[in-house]
Amino acid sequence: MSKISTWILKWLGWKFVGKIPADLKKFICAVVPHTSNWDFPMGILVRSALNRDIKFLGKHTLFQFPYGFIFYWLGGYPVNRKKSANIVEAVVKIFNEKETFAIALAPEGTRRKVNKLKTGFTTWLNKRMCRLSLLSLTTNIKYLSLENHSIHRTMNPQILK
């Protein structure tokens, strides 16, 4: 399936630079910017091309009837931002319980333009539970860039404030 996904990305005109190290067992894939509903199918396609089992966090309403089972089947974890469900601690528990675990998220927390990112995911990085992979989708030039960081301090600190 990964060869087909890679071919589809190339056919659609996307250029893919970077990779996730094969020996990396636990990581967060922060996907930025999250500006369109098309980011989800694109993310599923990229995940398949990478040939990695990367779960994702998604808005809780996506997981409701009638299509909710599809998002669970694709590896999703629902997040209700209106309730204080402490998703950060829930994901900490998952990271601790599993030998290998990767999760994709949109640090903006919305598709609207924001000046700063949500910082909850940095808790996982601060606890040295995983590494960060930053996937940047530049839609106007169809460019996918994947960078790997050992800790969150390598990111622009102004963005995280």
What is this entry, summarized?
The chain is α/β, with parallel strands linked by helices and 161 residues long. The protein has helices at residues 2-11, 39-50, 68-73, 87-97, 122-126, 157-160, and strands at 15-17, 26-32, 55-59, 76-79, 101-105, 131-138, 143-149.
Question: Would you kindly provide a written description of the structure presented here, covering whatever features stand out?
Answer:
- The protein is of the alpha/beta class and 161 residues long.
- It has a single domain (2-160), classed as Glycerol-3-phosphate (1)-acyltransferase (3-Layer(aba) Sandwich), CATH 3.40.1130.10.
- Helices cover 30% and strands 24% of the residues.
- It is built from six helices and seven strands; from the N terminus they run αββαβαβαβαββα.
- A seven-stranded mixed β-sheet has the order 1-7-6-2-5-3-4.
- α1 (2-11) packs across α2 (39-50).
- Residues 150-161 have low confidence and may be disordered.
Which percent range describes the beta-strand content?
15-25%
In CATH, the homologous superfamily goes by the name Glycerol-3-phosphate (1)-acyltransferase
Report the total helices.
6
Q: In total, how many beta strands?
A: 7
CATH fold call = Glycerol-3-phosphate (1)-acyltransferase
What kind of sheet is the major sheet? Answer: 7 strands, mixed
Rounded to the nearest angstrom, the radius of gyration is 15 Å
Q: Give the domain tally.
A: 1
